[in-house]
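--- STAGE predict ---
source: upstream dedup step, 1 unique chain passed
mode: sequence only
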Amino acid sequence: IIDIDSNSALWSDCNFLKHIRQNNRKFNIDKSPKVLFSKGPIIDLIIHSGAGPALEFQLISDSFIYYNDNIEKVPKSKEDVFQDDSISLIDKRRLMKFFNFVLEFDPSGETKNQLFWDHLISLKINPKLATIIISSIALKLNVSDLQTISLKTGIEAMKQHLNSFGRFGSGALLTANYGTGSELCQAFCRYCAVYGGEYILDLDLKSIKINSENVVVSDGSTTYTAKSIIIGANFAGILENVQINESKIHRLVCISDKPFLNDGEHVMLIIPAQCSQVDPSLDNKSEKDGAVAIQYNSNNQSCPEDTCKSQHFYSICRYTRVVVQG
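--- STAGE serialize ---
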């Protein structure tokens, strides 16, 4: 964030900054942007609960991947695969055979503890397509995921993505207008209130006790009992006998008067992890986690018309994870 004195000569030359300042109330910057699978548990819950009328969604029209210093479109259908001249005919056949295997996969079957990446290579799927599969379809962007993700976990992640195509359009992923996380909260809050739900604001929780029948929370002077509780990660530290895995997420928000990708459409860019398992020339010190960038526009109600905003919900640089044993 650059703080510029409105009386300075620099400000007078920055027409775009003036535009942002004049339209500041038209920007909705989601500090924790999220994407949802069209055929995933959250969307199914919204439909089943009836909270849908309080929400508006936009479909992510396309996904792109940054690979070998080039940005390429990720195929999202059989037609896209067979029309892609950069994929050889034999690779197209291997890819479609693997997709059919994923859609017909039986999770109760035996996988012999095989790693997802090793299985892709065993099928003679080249490293580029394997990277697209694991990063852009399975959406696994951590170095640790590439090194340890099992065949079963990877296939289940892919299957959810592939099954989401076509439910609400040609894409598989959705974002909520005005911000996914905040809008989901307000929609369920409103719907819960209709049925007598009560909310206690600014409660300073001191303890949370979970037993077989209910949950008891206290602010030190008053206790409240409920059948279940939903809390943010910042309250996890007061739970009893719970191991805490902490993670760090680096985020960057870029606001531009020009589109970053695809004429300003609502799209996603994947930056895969750099891992020695994928690129043997890398050593452990050169390994880096991946990143995702989401491009928003005025259709998402996130910025004024004619202004394109790209939000990175991991980072334009890297998404890093630090695990702390609790």
